[in-house]
Amino acid sequence: MIEIEQSAALNTVQDLGRFTWRHLGVSVSGVMDPLALRAGNILLGNDENAAAIEVQMFPFRVRFTADTAIAVTGADCRTRLDGIELPAWWGCAVKRGQVLEMRYPRHGARGYLCIAGGIDVPQVLGSRSTALRGSFGGLEGRPLQRGDRLTTGTPTAAPLPPGGIGIEPPEQAMPEAFTRNRAGLVNVRAIPSGEYALFAADATRFWQQPWQVSRQSNRTGYRLAGEPVLPSETVEMRSYGLIPGIVQVPPAGEPIIQLSDANTAGGYPKIACVIEEDLWRLGQVQPGQSIQLVETDAQGAIAARQAMEHWLATVRDSVTLYSSAAGF
To answer: Rounded to two decimals, what is the model's pTM?
Structure first.
């Protein structure tokens, strides 16, 4: 069990989300950076969908009330255990009474605290994720706060080494797959979508100009600020189903990228869809920072998926190798 000593709005319990209820108006929810969650759970021998704590408001501090093991992944949150700083993307054993603190990130936006056995809150519609807009899931459907106590599941893997074990961050391990442009902006790959042809006059600018993530952004969607892109004609559309990654263009011409808590239906024209393999990168972009949208296709998305799964496989192999060496 762990006890929350300090937290703020928007720090929640999340897993990979609930995917089979959108036809009833229930959003996916789940982590904004699924790659970080999966890697942290692999390191601990958890199921990859085990619930963890998504931290996006800092500082965040917890006390461990029993011996266990943890992994901290995602943003480099300058995490300290009893005042000693831990590397980013790190797993280690912790003792009862120890205190862990995650502070404002050096880079990235969201850090993840994974626990051996996972966070054991009730499943709602097949997921432990917190749906803030619906006030269900997670811990009582709300953000974590001081004094909350979270139960953890039963660990199923070998204990981690006393000195800890690290993971090479995905951007370092896969530089050819996760690139930045000349200005250092994160490249986010997207495929032209349903009403793309309506924006033919502005399509080049959509791909070429940088887009700043507005401070009016959240887990529902990122509003992008830049020179507007406008359709060649005004069209009335019926509402259609939405998924995370869809890039809609409201009448003002500044796109919105739907994310983890995305609406389940909408009627703005769709200009593109960010590939699923790059959604984790968006989850690590802070409001006020800029991104570069890069046109790709289905083959590009498949190549990105293969690179991502190869990296996760190397994490699994490293854990298996350690377990074998430790005699488990």
So the answer is: 0.95
